[in-house]
Design a protein that fits this description.
Layout: E1 3-13, E2 16-25, E3 28-33, E4 43-48, E5 52-56, E6 58-63, H1 76-85, E7 88-93, H2 104-117, E8 121-127, H3 133-138, E9 146-150, H4 163-172, E10 177-180, H5 184-198, H6 207-210, H7 213-227, E11 234-236, E12 258-263, H8 264-268, H9 274-277, H10 290-299, E13 307-309, H11 337-346, H12 352-367, E14 383-388, E15 416-423, E16 426-430, E17 433-434
Helix pairs in contact: 4-7
């Protein structure tokens, strides 16, 4: 047996912060001990975690790693390495690659790629179309993270926005359905109005005018209304408006059937940032106004928002050139997601325990992940050590781990560093260096048939 001791850490877990030592046995948490205790074991590795915080590894429910078919801008190898450099140990990847992941065969192909190249643990969504219901029904509900439903025109070929098709999907889905909600008709109408006003090439700051609050609210309300007549577990992705928050309850996660995600970009950026970052922060749904960002931040701690993900979506810089209708939508956010949230804690937006709940515990609970997302004996040893920076210019993770070579958060000074990331008990990242080995595993899901 190989044992690792993480000694004297400030362990952030299940609502508390306490000094403790954690012992890893191979890929599993062997035990959690008071710092005055030390089990009589032969440790192959001892880590002095004094002045460090130990968190469960981040579970990112929303990434676009672009493989297969779009590997000129990213792939599972490059983006998973950027992820572990940011403290992420598990990712759920979206289906809008080439070919789109809308069949069991396409799913299996992606799992085979990840098995050989993914630094994090992984699972994949199957994308819903208007004619692949039989494929979705054939999948063991405990075998993948969920179904991705595009109710807005963000991704061609998978748009499903008619009530009949959505209701049919919701009625048969035995796994979470994660929905991108924007109303295509409203978006098209807004685009035509803007073009009549300023011409066919509106500047980037018209993006939130075209993809506005109304487009988001109408689609989210529609999804929730249709779900009301089914038993589906509906997960609304990347909320971006204050108005949408009114549609969700503040119940404990265990009592919810309809849940909400916020993403890093909408929590960090606002309309004013288009002036300096331009199309680098163009994403769908759009970055909106300060009041929306303020409302989203408040919803992190009042029970409305259940998960914080990234919507990590790399593109080449040349693909980001242009205005509101021509620049490609999407941005990379790994490896900066966790340290961005830790900075929000420093600003008083939320507490460290809230971050762990939103980025680790809740994703594990919502998706029914087996034995990950918590620091518990017998759970997989997916862990991250973080430290407070002691200099004005911290040594943050290299954004050029992303194949696209840029990141809208690069150059920003953060108050935190990722010290080490453990994936299944192995050090996948430590103090600026990503391991050359791959320790990620296919994620297993539990109790979805009940």
């Amino acid at each position: 047996m190989a044992y690792t001791l993480i000694h004297n850490a400030s362990v952030v877990n299940e609502g508390t912060i306490c000094k403790a030592s954690v012992v890893i046995e191979n890929d599993t948490i062997y035990g959690i001990y008071l710092v005055t205790e030390e089990p009589n074991l032969d440790f192959s590795n001892k880590i002095d975690a004094t002045d460090l915080f130990l968190l469960p590894g981040v579970i990112d429910d929303h990434v676009h790693f672009r493989e297969p078919g779009l590997t000129h801008k990213a792939n599972i190898y490059s983006e998973s390495r950027a992820a572990v450099a940011g403290g992420v140990t598990t990712i759920f990847d979206m289906p809008n690659c080439i070919p789109q992941t809308t069949t069991v065969k396409a799913l299996q192909d992606k799992f085979e790629i990840a098995e050989k190249s993914c630094a994090t643990n992984y699972s994949f969504y199957i994308g819903a179309t208007k004619d692949n219901l039989s494929e979705i029904e054939s999948i063991d509900p405990n075998s993948i993270c969920g179904v991705k439903l595009f109710m807005g025109s963000s991704t061609g070929g998978m748009l499903v926005d008619d009530a009949t098709s959505i209701r049919q999907l919701f009625s048969v889905a035995k796994m979470p359905v994660a929905a991108h909600c924007e109303d295509t008709d409203i978006i098209n109408r807004n685009a035509n109005i803007v073009k009549m006003k300023v011409g066919d090439s509106p500047a980037i700051h018209y993006h939130p005018v075209i993809r506005n609050q109304e487009a988001c609210y109408a689609s989210t309300a529609k999804a929730i209304d249709i779900a009301a007549g089914t038993d589906v577990k509906l997960h609304i992705l990347h909320l971006s408006t204050a108005k949408e928050l009114q549609l969700f309850s503040k119940q404990p996660l265990s009592d919810k059937r309809i849940t909400a995600e916020a993403c890093i970009a909408h929590l960090v950026f606002s309309f004013e940032d288009y002036e300096t970052l331009g199309a680098k922060i163009k994403c769908n749904p759009s970055i909106k106004h300060r009041d929306d960002r303020l409302a989203l931040r408040a919803a992190l701690t009042d029970g409305t928002i259940d998960i914080v993900g990234t919507d990590h979506a790399p593109h080449l810089l040349k693909e980001k050139e242009g205005g509101a209708l021509t620049a490609t939508s999407g941005m990379p956010t790994h490896p900066y997601s966790l340290i961005s949230m830790l900075d929000l804690a420093d600003q008083g937006v939320l507490k460290l325990t809230d971050i762990v709940k939103l980025m680790c515990h809740n994703p594990a609970e919502l998706f029914g992940i087996c034995k990950r997302g918590f620091i518990r004996t017998g759970y997989k040893a997916d862990l991250v050590l973080v430290s407070k920076c002691i200099t004005e210019n911290p040594n943050i993770a290299d954004s050029h781990l992303n194949m696209c070579g840029w990141n809208p958060l690069e150059g920003k000074s953060f108050g935190w560093n990722i010290h080490s990331t453990f994936v299944n008990g192995q050090i996948a990242y430590k103090e600026g260096k990503v391991s050359d080995k791959f320790f990620g595993e296919r994620v297993l899901f539990c109790n979805r048939n009940s």
